[in-house]
Amino acid sequence: MVSFIELSPWLQRFEAAWRDVQDRLYNEPTRLHAACRYALAGQGKRIRPLLAMAAAEAVGSAWDKALPAAMALEFVHTYSLVHDDLPCMDDDDMRRGRATTHKVFDEATALLVGDALLTDSFQILLQSTHLTAAAQVELVRALSEAAGGRGMVYGQDLDMHWTGRSGFTAQDLDAIHSNKTGALIAAACAMGAIAGEASADGVERLRIFGSRLGLAFQIIDDLLDNSAATGKSQGKDAHSGKLTYLTIMSHAEASARAERLTTEALQDLLPFGEKGKALHGLAVQLLQRTR
């Protein structure tokens, strides 16, 4: 099984490209550019970039073909965190073990940071010399669908709607996280396949794999909410009246569901054989993670 440690060369290459793109996009001595770099400097787990690169490998391409997709995904993910943390949203002071962007700068600047990162994510894709024009169009389509009003943003709206309310169902909870978390994870897998010039069937199979993995990821996130190791405010979701998987099921039931979803996702990888081993390893590692 491939582990995060074994993928360290991928991460090293990603981090070098990550620094280069920031030097190109945010090199002016302005408050906005400083704030963008602060937000992007938060050391996340790079799950979406790793999934994109592993998906490219799964379809028989070089993993680094997915680097532009990996960076665009992480730009969108970072923007979503900056906006989620704002007082008008989840109102959080800590993210990735550091003060949130609006606490270090201010709310208006943090809002503009999110706007810049989202918009510039598409510039990263369209200025890449490693991708064909057809692949660029498909990547922009996949990312915009996952991030927009029928994807991640819609999920955030549902999350806010159900916070502190009753009358919800298990389907409402799945709808939140299939969109808020799952859509971008599914897009990461699909975009890696697109960058690797996979067939439409291969792209769709990996998108389904990612959607299952995204729900499993969120269930584990809910189980870890009380852990200080996450880098977020401890127990924040429960204290805020968020609708989580522990609202509707026990810890054991939630763990079992995450395991079932991961098992189903792994079945989706069978047609990719040995080429899918990095994706297989990442799925298992995400299920077993403790932070």
Return the CATH class.
Answer: Mainly Alpha
- The CATH level-2 architecture is identified as Orthogonal Bundle
Largest sheet: 2 strands, antiparallel
Oligomer: single chain
Low-confidence stretches: none
| Large-scale geometry | globular
Strand order of the largest sheet: 1-2
**Count of strand segments:** 2
Quote the distance from N terminus to C terminus. Answer: 20 Å
> Approximately how much beta-strand content do the residues carry?
under 5%
State Rg.
18 Å
> What is the CATH topology?
Farnesyl Diphosphate Synthase
The mean pLDDT is 92
Tally of separate domains: 1
Q: CATH homologous superfamily name?
A: Farnesyl Diphosphate Synthase
Secondary-structure element string: HHHHEEHHHHHHHHHHH
Number of helices: 15
**Helix amount:** 55-70%
Q: What structural class do helix, strand and pairing data support?
A: mainly alpha
What would you note in describing this structure?
- By secondary structure, the protein is mainly α.
- The chain has one domain (5-288): Farnesyl Diphosphate Synthase, CATH 1.10.600.
- It is built from 15 helices and two strands.
- It has a two-stranded antiparallel sheet with strand order 1-2.
- It starts with 7 loop residues before the first helix and ends with a helix.
